[in-house]
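Human: I hope this is not a bother. Would you mind checking the protein record under this note? Thank you for your patience.
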Amino acid sequence: MFKKLISITTLAFWILLNTSAAFAATESLPEENSSYLKPVINLDNAIEIRKSTIFDASQSYIPNPENKINYEWDFGDGNKNEGAEVLHAYKEPGHYTLTLKITDEEDVSETSMDVFAYSKLVLLVTDQDENMDRIKIFQDIAEKKGVFLKIIESYGSSTEFISEEILTKKLTEESASLQKAQEIIIWTKENSGLNGLSRFIQNTKTATNFSQKTILLIDNNISAKINRAQRQFIIIKPKIIIVAKEAAIDDLLESTNDQEFQSKLQERGRNYEIIDAKSGKLRPWNFMSYIVNILINNGIPDNTIALLLLLPVIATVVAFMRQVIGLTTFGIYTPSIITLSFLVIGMYAGLLTLALAILVGTLSRPLLSKVRMLFIPKMAIVITLVSLSLLLLLIASIYINLFNAQFLSIAIFPMLILSTLVEKFVSSKGEKSFASATVLMGETVLVSIVAYFIAGGEINLGLFNVKFDLVKRLMLTYPEIILLLIVLNVLLGKWTGLRVLERVRFREVLRHIEE
């Protein structure tokens, strides 16, 4: 029986090797049309008018280079030229069909591509996936005016932090377009666009000059954007930043320079604010703003500073929920770290990670209880199982398109932090009953969700989005408020009355006392 098994295995292995070799041989066969000419045009599909551009055909496939080769260019504007590399400049904006024909002594072949010649390049940095239809309309309007509106987007980003990371990476990849752009439109939900632009400037080794560029910052709440935009102005150093509402995009696309743009804003009664080198002078009583500016100027991301400023807010919310409302939590660290993770990766992804960790910890603990081991090694095994489960979740999310690769590359660390909180639940379950541990974890998560919304979190309910960013805006605009939290916590520390939930629990007793 054993020999028969060896023979079958050997035969299967031999068949596998021969099949692989045959497949490799098939793959290595030359293509049927490999002897034909293959013209290749190496050119961007959008080029600036009245500027000589190299039209390159050097990457074309020539099967017989010893033959006499002829390259014929038809630029679609009535002009033609010959050569493997030629210069040409379009005089008027519009769409042109570019044709390249290659002939040798034996064959002839041609290819074509659509080229858009533009009068100016405008860069739109956005994460407004709910306004994709509006952005497409702006692109169509821009083309009719001979303007190339290039989109750099981070659609589908769950939080400002994720959006900023993606935009920073894409701006680095599109640094050439960033150099060519005369104006930059930033239309993001938060400050991720400006933050990404400033991080690009700080990270790139090649100096990028923005001194002649106008930045249009789109936001419905203009006054709330001014202070944060002033901080970023020092890093980006553009010619000017104009903060306005969405309608100003039309005015920018119609204008040839920033003077004409400002004139149109005034003529059409737009509400806007101008930020330049003279605006935004700090006052002595804004001493915390000096500290924030120093951090930003030295390369600390704006969102990192936001987390530092929001941590005392989160801790104060937890203290209030415990001391005044009467909810119990796993200390103050656990709800705070859950809230911070929610702010970074979003509430849905955070709750999914936390639920998976608790589920795996709950199921694995009874199995490990039958093994005589010390507590710490057991917890190490539980966290290992949680880590493996999280890995399977990430693999499954890629296939069902739950999370994209860019999100996962940024969010993996907060997700790992959330997964380690299973120790709190398992330890509590060992000391108390399963029901008590579940209630305690539930109240901890509830407090974290409340703190998440107060700290500027967002919930997406399809067509209805809920976002409470007042506290976040105030903390970033006036960081001195952080000192008031100390006073508020002193008052909470002196709280001696009944908590809200205690009044509900003992309402019958209190009613009898009053009688």
About this structure: The first helix runs from residue 2 to 28.
